[in-house]
Amino acid sequence: MKISGRNFIPGKIVEIKEGATTAHVRVAIAGGTILTASITNEAVEELGLKLGESVHALIKASDVMIAVGD
Amino acid sequence: MKISGRNFIPGKIVEIKEGATTAHVRVAIAGGTILTASITNEAVEELGLKLGESVHALIKASDVMIAVGD
Amino acid sequence: MKISGRNFIPGKIVEIKEGATTAHVRVAIAGGTILTASITNEAVEELGLKLGESVHALIKASDVMIAVGD
Amino acid sequence: MKISGRNFIPGKIVEIKEGATTAHVRVAIAGGTILTASITNEAVEELGLKLGESVHALIKASDVMIAVGD
Amino acid sequence: MKISGRNFIPGKIVEIKEGATTAHVRVAIAGGTILTASITNEAVEELGLKLGESVHALIKASDVMIAVGD
Amino acid sequence: MKISGRNFIPGKIVEIKEGATTAHVRVAIAGGTILTASITNEAVEELGLKLGESVHALIKASDVMIAVGD
Q1: Residue C36: closest CA among chain E residues belongs to which residue?
Q2: Does the pLDDT value for residue A70 go beyond 90?
Q3: ipTM (interface predicted TM)
Q4: Residues linked to residue C58 through DSSP beta bridges, in sequence order
Q5: Tell me, what's the pLDDT at C70?
Q6: Is C17 touching B (CB cutoff 8 A)?
Q7: Which of A11, C28, D38, E44 is the most exposed place for a label (fewest CB within 10 A)?
Q8: Which of E18, E22, E65 faces B60 most closely, judged by CB atoms?
Q9: Amino acid C2: pLDDT
Q10: B28 in contact with A at a CB cutoff of 8 Å?
């Protein structure tokens, strides 16, 4: 499968926290940055996400902003 | 200023392409990944974005998906 | 590849209109509805999208609203 | 009321699951696809959403991606 | 029609700029803030948007961030 | 820090409701409108958000729709 979404960032899952309906999955990427993805609990279960697993974060280009300065 | 958005990824601008109203800004991040941000031309101009500039990509956690496998 | 995004809707491409940086791709789905996806020109080209091609529209659950009444 | 959002997909509600703050509403659309909308509990209550109710899923064009292949 | 999206902000259109596919519509709201909406040219035309028209900006709660400080 | 996101709306926090993973923060803006932001509990805590605090709602232009009529 190929996706029009432009941003695939490789990393490893370092935390999975399921809430009542919404889960937060943290992914360590190159350079020491930790990303947070807010997805459905159902997606966590259907994909069988596990700590330490290699995944990609996928982000549509129209959802990326640019920040400059501190 | 601090922002609730959870994902700040440091990088350098490697391409700026302005369209009629919408610009694509590419940012090289650690690990060799190039991100694409689709933002307004006006933001490019107001922030004075330049090739080679150090910036952060900012992404809200609810806009991040997880992809597994190839 | 499997994606955490919950909504995959099968259909056929009925129109591709590239702008300066942003393209609109229309996809006819079951029931006579035509969806519009606003994606980058680059994605149209990299995926080699063509009229009549069978594709899926992919939408993250947090981007779906519910409308009631007229 | 008319909305600039381009994608209105008719369907019927087949599941409503409220979490602590976020609800998942599933909508059966033509062709046998079930959509998932992640919305606030408050919206579920204010709109009085009910199982079996005819609704539309509403999605902004910039939130639709295209996937090709398997 | 009622929409699950939580944020309706009343205002008046003060600028419409159509690009090749994407339009920027600016809406003056209470307190002197000018909002920018990036929507399709097609939506501008189908809704017949005009300068000075009273409209609402509609934003899903999951698309709102909070910023503190300067 | 400057952000490419085009929409900063000043207001005061009037309610914070944390769920299992996702919080709803309500912000009163000029003209009597109350906005709802759905953000992570972690952001609420890291930013130390408090009732009555002056903040800005930040929204990317591509996440703003236009609604006309009733």
Answers
A1: E40
A2: no
A3: 0.98
A4: C8, D65
A5: 81
A6: no
A7: C28
A8: E65
A9: 97
A10: no
